[in-house]
Amino acid sequence: MKNEPHILIVDDNREILDLVSRFLIKEGYRTSTAPDGRAMRKILKDGKIDLIVLDLMLPGEDGLSLCRDLRVESNIPIIMLTAKGEEIDRIVGLEMGADDYLAKPFSTRELLARMKAVLRRTQTMTKDIDLAGSFRFSGWTLNTTNRELISSDDVVVPLSTGEYNLLIVLLERPKHVLNRSQLMDLTRGRFYDAFDRSIDTQVSRLRRKIEIDPKNPELIKTVWGGGYVFTPDVTPA
Q: Range with the lowest mean pLDDT among 29-33, 41-45, 59-63, 120-124?
């Protein structure tokens, strides 16, 4: 059991905590549960967590605030639970750095599928970037050992897990048009919903960090009717 992923479930609903925890244990995972942000931080301090299932609506600090704070200090994958499943909830969650989202009520099987996809993508990228080392493009350097994006004047720009995954996908496929479906599958390991614009949100967030003028992007260009293309030359550092 020590080699199985350790999942932290953060929700103030005891029934959900018990239900999800029992289900995941039955599926071979290790689990810890927390009813609020304070308990969550204590668990994170005391042990290694591989993925967090984080409820949006929590007493005290809400899930969005916790997600934002986690992204400052950690790259642990986060799946956000939203009560309504409205687009604004999903977009704001992704803005804060969540890797995926799931609307309540949800099936434990769907949650498991989302978890496996996020973990698989994270593990695959970790193996790939260990081999890659670092990338250089348009004055930027991405150090894949410590996940640092460094500007031409040596300023470190923090990246959320979602932004980092998207950038890796683009760096590995420069000058190739990638549609939303491909980007969704490559970054999150799940199929694209025609009404899901979350990948556009991630692109916008990444543009704000690497483009001189995000409103007139030169590095990540939109291909109307097609998707996006990463234009710079990419070289190993």
A: 120-124
In the block, which residue shows the tokens 């994958």? 77
Domain positions in the chain are 6-123, 133-236
Nearest to 53 by CA among 124, 133, 132, 108: 108
Residue from 158, 163, 162 nearest 80 by CA: 162
**DSSP letter for each residue of 177-225:** EE-HHHHHHHHHSSPPPTT--HHHHHHHHHHHHH-SSTTS-SSEEEETT
Residue 16 has pLDDT above 90, yes or no: yes
Query: What Cα–Cα distance (Å) separates residue 77 from each residue in 70, 80, 123, 162, 220?
Result: 10, 10, 11, 9, 24
CB 119 within 8 A of CB 50: yes
Mean residue pLDDT of the chain comes to 84
Query: 133-236: which CATH architecture?
Result: Orthogonal Bundle (1.10)
CATH of 6-123, one of 3.90.1200.10, 3.40.50.2300, 2.130.10.10, 1.10.357.10: 3.40.50.2300
Other CB atoms within 10 A of residue 165 CB: 24
